[in-house]
Amino acid sequence: MSRFEVATLVLAPPPVVFDASLSVELHTSSMRGSREQAVAGVTSGQLSLGEQVTWRARHFGFTWHLTSTISAHIRPSYFVDEQVSGPFRYWRHAHTFEPARDGDGGVEATLMKDIVDFAAPAGPLGTLADALVLRRYMTKLILLRNAHIKETTETARQ
Question: Fewest CB within a 10 Å sphere: which of 36, 39, 60, 94?
């Protein structure tokens, strides 16, 4: 099992960042590089507790499908998405949104944290792929997604 964590400061209040993080459209626009699309379950709008979405994306030259469910949801501070079916032996992504202030002016902000626990497929080969590539690649995707959430929510507040 592997874990990585990412923290991103967003200059917008937690409810705004929380809602943006559950937007299907915002997610797909942040993952244009992998041509990610919602193809089943909730395919537009905002995800909520108990709902599922199936994503189709292209990574490492292959098309993958991953179905996840929102297994915990406490607006505006916390939600979890977990793989129901897909390429990982295990996938759990916890999202937290803590109120924060930025700078001397005290601009309202959110400290957005991602805690991702996962297990690669394919036994020992998957463990090797994780060590060599997968964790770094997944972290890069989360950072890309967070940069898009940050840009979208901060721009909306101006």
Answer: 60
Burial track 24-40 (b if 16+ CB lie within 10 A, e otherwise)? bebbbebbeebebebee
In this structure, are residues 99 and 14 in contact, taking their beta carbons and an 8 Å threshold? yes
Which residue in 156, 89, 90 sits closest to 81, CA to CA? 90
Angle between helix axes 14-21 and 135-156 (nearest 10 degrees) is 130
Closest CA to 110 of 6, 19, 14: 14
Partners of 37 in beta bridges = 56
Tokens 């940069």 belong to residue: 147
- At 106 the pLDDT is 74
- How many residues would you count in the chain? 158
**What does DSSP assign to residue 73?**
E
With a cut of 50, list the residues of the chain below it in pLDDT. Answer: none
Query: What per-residue confidence (pLDDT) applies to 104?
Result: 65
Q: Which amino acid is at 96?
A: T
pTM reported for the whole predicted model:
0.91
In 3D space, the residue among 117, 50, 114 whose CA is nearest the CA of residue 88 turns out to be 117
Beta partners for residue 64, in sequence order? 57
